[in-house]
Structures are given as structure tokens and as C-alpha cells.
Amino acid sequence: MASIARGFEELYGRKPEVISEAPGRVNLIGEHIDYSEGFVLPFAIADRTYAAIAARGDGLVRIASHQRKEKIFSIDINDVKPGSKGDWEKYVLGVLWSLGITSGVDIFVDGNVPGGAGLSSSAALECSVAVALNSLFSLGKSKEDLARATQRAENDYVGVPCGIMDQSVSLMGQAGAALLLDCRDLTTEIVPFSVADAGLELLIIDTQAHHALTDGGYAERRAACESVARKLDIPSMRHLTLDALEAQREKITATEFIRARHAVTEIARVLEAVVALRASDFVTLGKLINASHISLRDDYAVSCPELDVAVDAAIAAGAIGSRMVGGGFGGSAIALIKASDIQKTKDAVLAAFEGRGFRKPRFFTSLPSAGASASLVQ
Ligand code: GLA
């Protein structure tokens, strides 16, 4: 945290008023159901994005990052509205906009959440800026308010139709635990997830395959669920059972049927996973994780060859459970493995990727970590 303050000072020639941090996330189970009012079970990872902020007397907004220090992006606060200029800076501008900030600010960010890996680097950036602004301007917003504001920033300012999971866990995650989030009303339950105590490790495999939620596949899946809800006259997939879905099969298309089947079965798997986790029944948890992958691959069709190869190789090497995480079409997979199997699993995945001529994957591990926080600089 000290280096973010130093970086700010070197760049802007004065001290920041607030520094903050927010983590990326891994989703244990509950994929593509946050926008269907489902339950999800993510946890915050150790990698995070840091922000340093100070208010300005004029209406100027300046944004810079450690990675591109030489380029300070400037814009008048009155021009901060959807459709404005900006590249990655839009994630920051969107938060200023959705929180209704009217003052100028200097912002400096730095972080180590791998981008494009499906680990929510964008939510980490949005949330670190949001908690910093909340503190700087004494906005008094709750974590739920901030989750909704940062989601709105991403939906309406950046133009990514994401759900609310990533921002919620980045804000509300707790060390040593997964977060059971009810995406209907953002209520949460902390579910202890002490992998190390059980002699396990959660390996994150970044397939290095392209991942962007703006490509259309994500919006299409979301639209399919909304279409089913309309045709079956229910508010969301949360209100559907497998029996009701079967009984009304002729009202929807074959594709909509399998998309809805994923949503319904995945919501059920999350609740079963919570029971398993509370009982330290990792074998059952592993089976649910595997079933989630199969459903995402076959019914929801958001996997890709790299993710499938990573998952299959990890399972063949003895993983208790493995699946793709996040939006899909690339990004990362997770494998719940015995801690002693880590090298063996990595080697198996590396060999499988090499055999298929894929780019070399990257590996990470992370314990469930704390959510976002901000502090005033003295
Ligand atoms: C992305 C989105 C989330 C969620 C996941 C899939 O990470 O940002 O809102 O929909 O995909 O579970």
C-alpha cells in the first residue's frame, strides 16, 4: 500500500488523501447465474488493484497507472458520461459517473490481478476506485450500494453486460472463506473454505486463451435466459424448477431449453456445494465442480478447447474437481487438488497444452482473501 502513495506523489507532486485496494476473484461454483438472480459461491483472491486518490479544487479528472505512468489521461468532470473518451480509464470514469461525483480528482492505480484471465481485474479496478471515492467524499454508501454502482459503471459506461458477482465479492470477500451471495438481494453468508487445513490446494490455470465479455457470446447467453423467463412468465431462472422447465419445453427453443437447464441445475449445485463445504466433504464438492463444468460446456456452451483440455488434464492427474471459471470462452480454470499433487497437475496440463499446440498456460494459487478496503492518508 505504501508504494501506491509514493507512486501518486511522484506523479502528481502531492500526497494522496485516500489509498485503497480491491481483489480479483475466483468463483468456486455458480457460473452464469448471477444475472438470473441465482446463488454464487466466489472468493476474493490475494491479487489486488490499488488506488490512490485526492480531490482537486477544479473540475479536472486525471487518471494514470503504474503500468503506463508516462500517460496521464485528463478529462473535465462534466464530460464524464457514457460515450466519453477513454480506454481502460472508462472503468474508472464509469465509477465516478455512477457515484455521481462532481468534483475533480487525481487518481493513480496499480495492481497485480492478471488481466484477461477471467479473474475479474476490471471489478478489482472499479471496486478499489469506488471504496476510495466513498471514503474521500464521505458518501456513506454500503457495500451493496457500491456493488450496484460498480456494476452500473461496467454495464452502462464501459458497455459490458456483466452480472453483479465479481464486484460483490471484490467488495465483500473475507479471508479464509467463500462468499455465498444471493444475487437477488445481495444478502451473503460466509462459508469457511480452508483448503490448506484439508491438505488441498486450489490451482488456477490461466489458459491464455482470449477472453472478452464484449464479444457477444456473454450477452447472447444472458438474452437466452431473459427470453425463457419472458416466455414462461417468470421473473428469472431462479423461479424455475427442472420439472416446470420440462413441462413447458414446447414454449421455448431447443437452445433456450439447454441454457435454462444449465441455470436451474447450477443454482441447485451451489446450494449443494455449500452443504458439502460446511461438512468439509471435498469429494462431493469436487463432483459438483465437475458437473458444473460439464453443464457449462454442453448446455451453456461457454467453454472452449483450451478450458476443456485444462480441466480434463487436471482430472486425469487426480484433481478432486475441476472446471472453467468466469464468463468463459477462454480465461481460467480451477482445479481442486491434493496439495502434494501440485507439480504433477501442472506438468499434466502443460503436456496436454503442448500436445495440442496451445499457448503455454500460466498457473496461480491463492488462498481466499479479504475484500476491498480504503484508508485515509495521514
Ligand atoms: C463474468 C461476469 C459475471 C458473471 C460471470 C459468469 O465474470 O462479470 O457477472 O456473470 O462472468 O458467472
Explain what this protein looks like in three dimensions.
It is a single chain. The chain is an alpha+beta fold and 378 residues long. 40% of the residues lie in helices and 22% in strands. It contains 11 helices and 13 strands. The protein has helices at 2-12, 89-98, 121-136, 143-158, 165-172, 217-232, 242-247, 254-278, 282-298, 305-316, 342-356; strands spanning 18-27, 39-40, 42-56, 60-65, 73-76, 104-111, 177-182, 187-192, 200-206, 321-324, 332-338, 362-365, 373-376. It has a 6-stranded mixed β-sheet with strand order 5-4-6-3-1-13, with helices on both faces. A hairpin with a 7-residue loop joins strand 10 and strand 11. Helix 2 packs across helix 4 and helix 4 runs antiparallel to helix 5. The longest helix has 25 residues, at 254-278. The mean pLDDT is 96. Alpha-D-galactopyranose binds next to helix 5.
Shape: globular
* Overall mean confidence score, pLDDT: 96
Number of helices: 11
Please tally the β strands and state the result: 13
Q: What is the helix content?
A: 40-55%
Order of helices and strands: HEEEEEHEHHHEEEHHHHHEEHEE
How much of the sequence lies in strands comes to: 15-25%
Main beta sheet: strand number and arrangement? 6 strands, mixed
Q: Strand order, biggest sheet?
A: 5-4-6-3-1-13
The residue ranges in which pLDDT falls below 50 over 5 or more consecutive positions are: none
Distinct bound molecules = alpha-D-galactopyranose
Our measurement of the CA-to-CA distance between the termini, rounded to an integer number of angstroms, reads 13 Å
Rg from alpha-carbon coordinates: 21 Å
Q: Class by helix and strand content?
A: alpha+beta
